[in-house]
Amino acid sequence: MNKIGNVRELATFAGGCFWCMVKPFDELPGIVSVVSGYTGGHTVNPTYEEVGTETTGHVEAVQITFEPELFPYERLLEIYWQLIDPTDQGGQFMDRGYSYRTVIFVHNEEQRKKAEASKEALKASKRFKGQIVTEIVPAGTFYPAEAVHQDYYKTHPMNYKMYMKGSGRDEFLEQHWNSREDRKRLRSRLTELQYEVTQNKAMEPPYKNEFWEQTQEGLYVDVLSGDPLFSSADKFDSGTGWPGFTRPVAGGLIRKEADFSSGTVRTVIRSRLSGAYLGYLTYDGPEPAKQHYVINSAALRFIPKEELETEGYGRYLAGPEVKL
Q1: pTM of the shown model
Q2: CA atoms of 99 and 124, how far apart (whole Å)
Q3: Is the pLDDT reported for residue 92 higher than 70?
């Protein structure tokens, strides 16, 4: 039996206000914890007020404990770059000052090489017109912030939403990571149906799609990102003409949204990291949970059980998530 997630590492990122840096990493598979805190300064046990005076040298940061076999460091870097403005030396969005600058604090030489490579790739992409100024420096002592700042998006949801909206962070990231060029690249690699489903919330025809009656053992992954979403072990004949599943492989890779476009309220399902529209959730499935994930075949790629190892998903052959 394969051992899954038996090694843990630390990753530390500064990206402006640490309230905004927890949720994007939290609850993903392989993420053990995300702690808000202070690092990079010259004082001991700084407080929020002291760091805010810009005299301690610290930045607000998050320290992530993760299992690289389940969620590699490269994926953390991908998420990080999509949370920040890497061209801004004076802070992030409406938060100004040295304590809000962007920094990748690396914990070993391997992390340094991967962080440098990701920074060079971002430069080469020419996604941003300005110079990429995010620093990459060795990690030092990390001081956890006060309790009120931990998991702020959960403990103060209204304040968090108002802050995010007012900061301009979401609008900036949408502009730079969902550009016309991004959509053009997607169109070139997807079929018309895949694009309409994943990007425009289309539903493919029932009983006339690739996986609705498939019974082969294997893993269904995001057609865009390759993230493992559903297992054949949780597939059932829903009678709808679309693939039906009782649960996802990992809840952290699924995002649920309220949708009112059909005239009735329903729960839309997206792939969390790629944002691809997958389908919707109902509660007319098998007992006891009765969850029924109605998913478009066009949003999925199927990997047969015998190909999981060669495709890089061997950990799911014996893991508790899939039980193939």
Answers
A1: 0.89
A2: 28
A3: yes
111 falls in which pLDDT band (50, 70, 90)? very high
How confident is the model over 67-79, as pLDDT tens digits? 999 999 999 999 9
Between CA 20 and CA 152 the distance in angstroms is 8
Ramachandran region, residue 88 (left: φ > 0; alpha: ψ -120 to 50; beta: rest): beta
Structural tokens at position 125: 């992409």
Is 292 in contact with 281 (CB distance < 8 Å)?
yes
Q: Give the model's confidence band at 33: pLDDT under 50 very low, under 70 low, under 90 confident, else very high.
A: very high
Strand runs (DSSP E) across the chain, as ranges? 9-15, 31-39, 59-66, 91-92, 95-96, 102-106, 135-138, 142-144, 218-222, 228-231, 235-236, 244-245, 254-259, 266-271, 277-282, 292-295, 300-304
Annotation marks residue 17 as catalytic: yes
The amino acid that residue 170 corresponds to is: D
Which among 10, 11, 17, 276 is annotated as catalytic? 17
Q: How far is CA 215 from CA 3, 58, 206, 220, 235, in A?
A: 27, 55, 17, 12, 8
Identify which of 252, 256, 322, 253 has the alpha carbon closest to the alpha carbon of residue 294: 256
Both tokens assigned to 86: 């890497």
Burial 180-201 (b: 16+ CB within 10 A, else e): eeeeeebeeebeebbbbbbbeb
The residue type at 144: P
